[in-house]
């Protein structure tokens, strides 16, 4: 298993687990990212922050620090 931060651009990953507590976890879940969700990594900024993803048909930007708390399996 790996974190969303480690997934390469143009790849799809399935969420296995969310780490973190409180506001951080709530922010991730408010974006529609929950266990079993498919995430497509569209673009990663040159320095790795932000990461642009597609979740449930929505295009979102996520911070590198948030991506480190999302455990995924790459498809």
TrEMBL record:
Gene3D superfamilies: 2.30.30.90. One of its GO terms (molecular function) is transition metal ion binding. The keyword Metal-binding does not apply. It comes from the Bacteria. Coiled coil: none annotated. Keywords: Iron. The keyword Metal-binding does not apply. Residues 2-74 form the Ferrous iron transporter FeoA-like domain. PANTHER family: FE(2+) TRANSPORT PROTEIN A. This is Ferrous iron transport protein A. It comes from Clostridium aminobutyricum. The lineage of its organism: Bacteria, Bacillati, Bacillota, Clostridia, Eubacteriales.
């Amino acid at each position: 298993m790996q974190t969303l931060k480690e997934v390469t651009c143009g790849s799809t990953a399935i969420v296995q687990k969310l780490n973190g507590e409180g506001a951080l976890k709530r922010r991730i879940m408010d974006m529609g990212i929950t266990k079993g969700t498919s995430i497509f990594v569209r673009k990663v900024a040159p320095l790795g922050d932000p990461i642009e993803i597609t979740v449930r048909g929505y295009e979102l930007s996520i911070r590198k620090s948030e991506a480190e708390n999302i455990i995924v399996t790459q498809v």
